[in-house]
Write a structure and sequence with these properties.
175 residues; mainly alpha; Arc Repressor Mutant, subunit A; 7 helices; 67% helix; 7% strand; transcription; DNA-binding transcription factor activity
């Protein structure tokens, strides 16, 4: 992972310059948003670097994990779109890629033959069981700068922010 320090320094300098010429800039909130996005981007790049040898990206793996963690190992593409925050077209691409690797299978729902059901395969379960354990040490290391209590507080605060944003953000895409 490349150094984030120059980006963090530039972020603070840039926001400070903007705040000098634009009255009312909510500096603290801008810093928080930009730092979250910068950090999330770095974590995502690191994660996708680990998935690349397997021809996967975050969306593919997240979808596979949703099936892996579901009660019966299956879901409809529509359910997965909502949980993975993906559009139907991209979910089709993801399902095609995972099916081509034999990590998931497609079938029709028994209660409605028009409905497609995606299910993790035994090969998909083996893949997840192989992929996850080596990812744990670097993940733990990324958060080693926090004490256990700080991690719990950070989690609570991020969850609180996520649920607050969920209530306040207008999801209507019209301008």
């Amino acid at each position: 992972m490349s150094s984030l320090k120059p980006c963090v320094d530039a972020l603070y300098e840039g926001v400070d310059r903007v705040a000098q010429s634009v009255p009312g800039v909510p500096r603290s909130e801008v810093f928080l948003v930009r730092l979250l996005m910068l950090t999330a981007g770095a974590l995502l790049r690191e994660f996708e670097h680990k998935l690349k040898p397997y021809g996967m990206n975050d969306s593919d793996f997240r979808t596979l994990m949703m099936l892996y963690s579901s009660e019966d190992g299956s879901a409809t593409p529509g359910e997965l779109c909502a949980l993975a925050e993906q559009k139907p077209t991209n979910m089709t691409r993801i399902a095609n890629a995972l099916a081509k690797k034999d990590l998931i299978s497609r079938s029709h729902a028994t209660h409605d033959r028009r409905q497609v059901l995606l299910r993790i395969t035994p090969a998909g379960r083996r893949f997840v069981n192989k992929m996850l354990p080596p990812m744990f040490p670097p993940l733990v290391e990324n958060f080693a700068c926090f004490s256990s209590a700080e991690r719990k507080t950070f989690e609570k605060l991020l969850k609180k922010l996520a649920l607050h944003i969920d209530r306040t953000v207008d999801t209507d895409d019209t301008p």
